[in-house]
Amino acid sequence: MNTEERSWESDFLPLVRPPQKNGSNDTYCFAFKDRELLLVKGNNSLRLPSLEEIGNMDIDILRTQYLGELKDISCFSVELDNSNAVASIVENASFVSVRELPGILEETLAYLAGKAVHIMEWDRNTLFCGRCGSATSLKENERAKECPECGFLAFPKISPAIIVLIEKDDRVLLARSPHFRPGLYSILAGFVEPGESIEEAVVREVREEVGISIKNVRYFGSQPWPYPDSLMIGFTAEFLEGDIKVDGVEIEEAGWFTKDEIPVVPGKTSISGWLIEYFINKHS
Ligand SMILES: [Zn+2]
């Protein structure tokens, strides 16, 4: 993906209350069992159900949140009762992991599923006030839960994380986390600490994970990453000095690779894939 050419206009309008509508009553329903989305089997494809279709299925709905409008179609997230019975009860439906949705749903809907799962998790994680333990209620005009006892507000949490492509002449730094599947490499990433700028986080994470220093840290682009609630903020940077020394905890192996030596890396549905593609194109 070329982030410079991309239009940032979105057809989706986020809202917290449904508008009065005279026309369409169409709905998209993002219904989750844990973090798996319920899709209805159509002609050789899978599609989102409507809120009405979900209501007609023999499944228990725990909670529903309105998300906003996609071209006049109202969008909802739904948390389904997570009993083992769910999958077997629902005929003509499949549960698909949020990570697998790109390629199954069109891009806008796959992204909206990320928002939906994020809001669904926020809803179930804020049923009670984190400060005093009272039951919360939905705030009227913004996406927040309010405590009627102490006034505490719980907004959806977004956890910023940095991801950085580091170049050294015609080579890129790729590394393996012990959590990766065998053979997979990626670029470095980590969470931003409280009180830290995102640029400082880039420099610190690189120093901590592989022991080198970098220069020319430049913003590249960003991607919502609802696993469970991150926003990945991408950068490019250049090697400055130091020898690679992995921390052995978050990173077990790291090295410099030319574009022709690049091993298995993340696909082009993630910002890590976009950054690696940027490197390959630059050196092709
Ligand atoms: Zn409270």
Question: In brief, what are we looking at here?
Answer:
One of its GO terms (cellular component) is cytosol. The protein has two domains: 12-130, Nucleoside Triphosphate Pyrophosphohydrolase; 159-282, Nucleoside Triphosphate Pyrophosphohydrolase (Alpha-Beta Complex). It contains five helices and 16 strands.
Structure notes:
With 284 residues, the protein is α+β, with helices and mostly antiparallel strands. The chain folds into two domains: 12-130, Alpha-Beta Complex (Nucleoside Triphosphate Pyrophosphohydrolase), CATH 3.90.79; 159-282, Nucleoside Triphosphate Pyrophosphohydrolase, CATH 3.90.79. The protein is 19% helix and 34% strand. It contains five helices and 16 strands. It has helices at residues 51-56, 85-89, 107-125, 198-210, 271-282; strands at 12-14, 27-33, 36-41, 46-47, 61-70, 73-80, 93-97, 137-138, 145-146, 153-154, 159-168, 171-176, 188-191, 213-225, 230-241, 253-257. Strands 1, 2, 3, 4, 5, 6 and 7 form a seven-stranded mixed sheet that branches. A hairpin with a 2-residue loop joins strand 2 and strand 3. The protein is globular. The two termini are 16 Å apart. The model has no long low-confidence stretch (mean pLDDT 93). The site of zinc ion has 8 residues, from loops.
CATH architecture assignment name of the largest domain:
Alpha-Beta Complex
How can the largest sheet be summarized? Answer: 7 strands, mixed
CATH topology of the largest domain: Nucleoside Triphosphate Pyrophosphohydrolase
Question: Helix content range of the residues, please?
Answer: 10-25%
How far apart the termini lie comes to 16 Å
Class by helix and strand content?
alpha+beta
